[in-house]
TrEMBL record:
Keywords: Isomerase, Peroxisome. It is found in: Peroxisome. It holds the Pfam family ECH_1. GO terms for cellular component: peroxisome. GO terms for molecular function: delta(3)-delta(2)-enoyl-CoA isomerase activity. The keyword Heme does not apply. This is Enoyl-CoA delta isomerase 2. Residues 190-211 are annotated as: Disordered. CDD domains: crotonase-like (cd06558).
Length: 211
């Protein structure tokens, strides 16, 4: 799934007919996080090889979000858990249904925040509010996520799909080059910090990605 999402975003980024991209969930949930059973299948080469491969996959996956040149919209249609929550900070617009929740379970799993969340969450929430999510694992309601700046707008569940479509179509009606140039300007400082993290120049909380 990591590879498939990465490939879909890369294709959308290169397709001149695509003005913006929308990520949303199927069914009642936006995401359930990683299938933890994947981490119990240790290859014959040992856990070090598995960890190295997972690190490379994660760096490439998150890098695709950082480098995506067009407006990226997240439609959080229900409860969201794990890395799709941390990646919301790399989306340009985040719309949520009023039944959505936002939960990071990295601490309880003995891991550290990924998806550039340790860089970006404190930037727009403030350290105290961000740490409650990143370190204490507090689950946020849609309203709380909106108040903390993680969500752009909250809609009633019954209206959510219609509003998400309307907002995406509005963005898609705007001049594509202006949108891309504006995104590049808005995201320039974040991209520079994340790029330095890729090269190992920024301390990273979970890899070399400044995540």
């Amino acid at each position: 799934m990591y590879r498939e999402i990465q490939e879909a975003l890369q294709a959308a980024g290169e397709d001149e007919a695509v003005v913006c991209a929308v990520l949303t969930g199927a069914g009642d949930y936006y995401s359930s996080g990683n299938d933890l059973s994947n981490f119990t299948n240790i290859p014959p080469e040992g856990p070090q090889k598995m960890a190295a491969e997972a690190k490379d996959t994660l760096k490439e996956f998150v890098g695709t979000f950082i480098d995506f040149p067009k407006p990226l919209i997240a439609g959080v249609n229900g409860p969201a858990v794990g890395i799709p929550v941390t990646l919301l900070a790399l989306c340009d617009l985040v719309y949520a249904a009023d039944n959505a929740t936002f939960h990071l379970s990295v601490m309880s799993l003995g891991q550290s925040p990924e998806g550039c969340s340790s860089l970006l969450f404190p930037r727009f929430m403030g350290p105290a509010q961000a740490n409650e999510m990143l370190m204490a694992g507090v689950k946020l309601t849609a309203g709380e996520a909106y108040e903390r700046g993680l969500v752009t707008r909250v809609y009633p569940k019954s209206e959510f799909q219609q509003k998400l479509t309307e907002n995406a179509l509005h963005i898609a009606s705007l001049p594509p080059m202006s949108l891309q140039k504006s995104k590049a300007l808005i995201r320039s400082s974040m991209r520079q910090q994340a790029a330095r993290g890729k090269r190992g120049r920024v301390p990273a909380a979970g890899g070399e990605m400044a995540v």
